[in-house]
Each structure stands twice: as structure tokens, then as C-alpha cells.
Specification:
about 350 residues, mainly beta, 34 strands
């Protein structure tokens, strides 16, 4: 089996490379009487089984069937009338439950929310296009967790080295990245599974096998540094040359550490004048202030003499293991050339 679940006193499993699933004896996970059922409406391989709201979901390669306990003498589970979803999952770990719904990465490389037998697309066309370009996606890992009033559904694609996250509260997507084990390049987020226990949200680490927990006052991942990055939308003046004398960023001050990296946290400005395809190599650094240097609640970081452009994107980066809070950004009224 790829998966197991517990429902109505039975352990249920998928049977690999078949359209069948099998169950244990009632309230006895050590005893099995060769009781099995099958996805029969449109037979396809069952990749995973899932109990959700007292319904057994058979997640197949091309369909999802909903079965329930009807109390039959032999096999107690049977398909619910009308309990067929004409969409499968892309892999045996490509599903998660959250917010009274099931979230899947479909066999068509699209993200869905499943409420009963009603399927709702949640990915955008841009994300669909990105997923289409990946190689094999059968290794997709979907899991969910709650943090700071938000519920997140993570779609990990280990083979493509990418992670996409949907925020249920805002209906917005973002990408999440971690440094690789060398600390030199960014790729998929290293979190690969989650569990809530002891009033904490625990995360399993794909790189080391360690288990950690989410903490709003910690700015590293399993001891490794993380990077915060903000990129502006394109700035332009309908094909005319624009002159930018300066740019300012308001950040929270006094967040530095007592010693080591982060004792004088730095923000770096990078500039792209080709639509974000390439970024300048100049490292324009500004200090956010050492620990305790609060002054006012925010500090203005200013970069001067930023030249001219026809279209520009700005990128702000902070790699120090400190709290990163950006209050506002501004630049002067542009001087437009001919």
C-alpha cells in the first residue's frame, strides 16, 4: 500500500497498481480477512485512500470515488450514489485536508479544492502554465498547516525543485524557497509534511529528516539562514525615459542580534531594467540599525543617483536572521525625458 487511513473502526489501505482497496477486521489492525473493495464506476488504479468527514475517498489516477460504511456483512463499504469525481490525482501524496475540504494536485496538473463531489479549481492560469512545464509530477507532496490566523496548503514538486503555497484566507498564491544543502542556491521549500500536537505546528525537514516547529520569533530554517525578497511591479512611463534620483524604504528598526550575522542587519537593493530577466551586479546595501537602535518605530533607508530607464523593477533582499518588517516604499515624482 501507498497510504492508510482509519474509518469507522477499520484500517483501510490502497492496493498498489490495482483499482482495489482492502480493510482490516473491525477494531483490530493486526487481523485481516481478505476483505477488499474496488473503484468500479470507471476502473483506474487507486493511488491513495483518505477518510474525510466519515467518507472514504478513493483517490485514483483519473477519478475519485466516495465510499461509505453501509454495514454490509462482507465488505461494509460501498460507493455513495453519485459519489464520483471525474478527476484523479497526480500521485499518491498529492492530497491534503484543510478547512473542511480536500485539496489535490490533479492528474491534469491543476490544483483543486474538493467539497464532497464538487470540484473547484484554485490555481491561476499562470501557475497552471508553470506546472505544465515540470517533468514527472507523480512525486508531488501536498500538506497543510495553520499559522497566525492563516491556513496554508503547500504543493511541493521535489523533481521540479519548486513549492507553491495557497493561502485559504486570502485566496492568494506565493512561492516558497529554501537554500539547498550547500547554502548556495535556492529551490523547493525544505518542509515536506506537518502535524499539529502539543500546541505547536511541527514540520518535517526534507533535507535532514529532522522535525522542527514553526516559531514567529525564529528567523532560520533548522539553523540555516533564510532570505526575504520583495520585487516591485514594472515601473514605466509609456515608452518615455524616466529619471530616478532616489528611492526610500521604511523598515522596522532595532531588530539586530547581539552578535554575529544579523548584529547590523542589512537590506540590499537590486535593479533590473529588462523586465526582471537580469539584475545588476552592484550590491547597494543599507543598514536597518543594530539591536536596540529604535529611535522612531521605523528607519528610512535611502539609495541615491539611480539613473534612468524605460522600464524598471526594484528588488529588496534581506538575508540576515532577524525580523523583517517593511512599512512603506517611495520615490520622488519622476522626471520624464523625451
Amino acid at each position: 500500500a501507498n497510504t492508510t487511513t482509519f474509518i469507522d473502526g477499520f484500517f483501510a489501505y490502497d492496493r498498489v497498481d490495482t483499482n482495489e482497496y482492502f480493510i482490516s477486521d473491525l477494531l483490530d489492525g493486526t487481523s485481516y480477512s481478505d476483505l477488499f473493495g474496488a473503484a468500479e464506476a470507471r476502473p483506474d488504479d487507486v493511488l491513495a485512500v483518505l477518510k474525510h468527514i466519515e467518507v472514504l475517498h478513493l483517490l485514483g489516477k483519473s477519478t475519485i470515488e466516495l465510499h461509505q460504511n453501509v454495514g454490509a456483512a462482507n465488505m461494509p463499504f460501498q460507493r455513495i450514489p453519485g459519489g464520483l469525481v471525474d478527476r484523479g490525482v497526480c500521485g499518491p501524496r498529492a492530497f491534503a485536508t484543510e478547512d473542511s475540504a480536500v485539496f489535490i494536485a490533479g492528474n491534469d496538473r491543476i490544483g483543486y479544492r474538493l467539497n464532497g463531489s464538487a470540484l473547484q479549481k484554485i490555481t491561476t492560469p499562470a501557475i497552471d502554465s508553470a506546472w505544465e512545464k515540470y517533468g514527472a509530477v507523480s512525486d508531488c507532496e501536498v500538506f497543510s498547516y495553520s499559522y497566525s490566523g492563516h491556513k496554508f496548503v503547500n504543493y511541493n514538486f521535489p523533481g521540479a525543485n519548486k513549492t507553491w503555497v495557497w493561502d485559504i484566507a486570502t485566496n492568494l498564491w506565493h512561492e516558497r524557497e529554501s537554500y539547498d544543502r550547500t547554502g548556495n542556491s535556492l529551490g523547493r521549500w525544505r518542509g515536506r509534511c506537518s502535524a499539529t500536537a502539543y500546541e505547536k505546528t511541527f514540520i518535517g525537514d526534507a533535507y535532514t529528516g529532522k522535525i522542527g516547529y514553526i516559531d514567529g520569533a525564529t528567523f532560520t530554517e533548522f539553523g540555516d539562514n533564510t532570505r526575504a525578497e520583495l520585487i516591485s511591479p514594472p515601473i514605466h512611463a509609456d515608452g518615455k525615459r524616466v529619471f530616478m534620483p532616489w528611492f526610500e524604504l521604511d523598515v522596522k528598526t532595532g531588530v539586530g542580534k547581539t552578535s554575529g550575522q544579523g548584529s547590523d542587519p542589512q537590506y540590499m537593493l537590486s535593479i533590473s531594467d529588462d523586465g526582471g530577466n537580469t539584475w545588476d551586479e552592484a550590491q547597494l546595501w543599507q543598514s536597518a540599525g543594530a539591536l536596540g537602535q529604535y529611535g522612531e518605530s521605523r528607519k528610512q533607508l535611502r539609495w541615491d543617483r539611480l539613473g534612468s530607464f524605460y522600464e524598471r523593477c526594484l528588488k529588496i533582499t534581506c538575508s540576515d536572521p532577524v525580523q523583517r518588517v517593511v512599512h512603506a516604499a517611495r520615490c520622488p515624482q519622476f522626471r520624464i525625458g523625451t
